Amino acid sequence: MSSVSGFRSRQVLARIVIGLGMGSALPYGCSSDDEQSQGLASRCTLNSDCTTPLVCVFQRCHAACKTSVDCTGGAQCLVSAAGGVCELSGEASDGGKLPGTGGGTGTGGASSGGANTGGNAETGGTAGTGGEMGTGGGAGLAIDAGRDSTTPGPDGGTPGCDTTWLSSPPNWFGAAGGTDWRPELHDPRWASAPLEQFAVAPAGVDSVGGLFRTLMKGRTLYVLFESTKQSPLTFADVVYFGVTRGTGGLGAYAVRMTPDSTTLPVKAPGAGVPRDPTLPVKTDAAYVDWYDTVNTSATPPVWNVHAGEIPPWLSDVATWRGSPGVAWAMTFKVDLTAIGAAGDLRAFHGMTIDPGSPASPLTFADPVLPATASSVNGETIIPSTSGDVCDDADPDTLLNNPCWRNLPAGGITSGISVAPADIGVLDSGSVTDRFRSCGAGGAPCPTNGSSIANTVRITVHGVPSFGVTAHAVRAQIRIADASTPGDPNAPWKLLSPLAPDGVFIAEQRTLTSDASWDWSYDAASGDATIDYTCTASANDYCPKLTNLADRNQCLLVELAGAPAVGAAFSSFVRSSAFRDVVF
Prior knowledge:
The protein is mainly beta. The protein has four helices and 29 strands. About 50% of the residues are buried.
């Protein structure tokens, strides 16, 4: 434990809120007794391998269904080639589809951190060469049914995108010298959840001083908070998070945490594993307080205080100090099974950030900011109730708004989206999977002072017309720079010179004045087109790769709304997509 623990006080610690109560929820699918007696989850090859009326899908026996109402224990009805089947215990859904099956209908994740992601079987041009990443707390990656590690890439070689890795959650802690973890705040796998702004935030440029992501993978929430305000850490820097149990119970938990400024960073991973210049810190329990209540709908709810400890449902609490593009950040995991969560949930996100003397701390909250007397334990910025009795500072000043935001279990079905077929390299008006390059055994580079540029085009669907302005939706574009195809430890190259996540917080004039970016919008279709032209120096090409010996690489695009354009531009069915490309 750090030296802070000896003189710790509640005011020194950051808090996070997680909605919980008492009791537990059944795992997805049927009970364990049903699985043993009826053959659920048994390995199979044919339907005849399963006890009637179970069906064999994805090499497991499943119960058939038409809708989720037909499933027990809160399981979803997932789409497969054989029809609808109920999700099994521990089987993470990929947007209404079984893992690896792709296709189907599925619903999207929500910008509010919705519980599941959506997708279809679209691919990036050639069969099985693309995928769609989850959104707003989404649960994974929708890929084409024929797409796996043996599917040829665009040029017939090994594909550049590793769908298994891209669909896995970020893992920032591991054994010293290990190669199976990645201490990188901007791990590409966070792209499954859009970077979000707070509904309540300071005015002007400070409105993007704090940002957050919420990603759901299986039965775990992965949460990220980041501060872009460059100033030394103080005890005024605090993060808050909360989630209710949904249909699993009336209770809720609350935690607040401050970044750990004293503990040493973790030991480094193995050689060749991407990592930030400053490795993350395993946050000491002295920096964590949490609270719980058995009923958030009580008047008022009674919250119990647990000071200076990390609860069993909270893990991998990391403090990031000095990562690219941020002043500090915190990441952590929430075990939804441990909290007994089921069905639609509600959550709260908040931060306070010390911008440095003489300014006062900046406060960020989503969806609302309560009065201190109406906050958890009277000492946080978390509303003490998760119901619909809060004022969101709109003109009506009525207490008729959600105090905590909705996390719908089925996600949303309408909003902004992008698919693999919507991203690629512009060539004579068409979008392709080919980047023009030179050298390293390919075409010779120019010698006359000219250069080879490439333009990445992204078509974004479902962009609302009301309030739309240039660059109302932003795109962060990355290319894998792997020495071998699909290397999970490959570095990823940002095409824009902006810092990681910088495009999402840049002022509009920064993009409109930069000839590299182009934006157009068609109100009739609701489609926006984003072009980014990567221009090389003389006698070279762009984007320049370190490992051009491997010409099969992966293009990853993630979307987020621009600063202060409104919630409608942060409501995503699908916020990211990838496709195999060749140089």
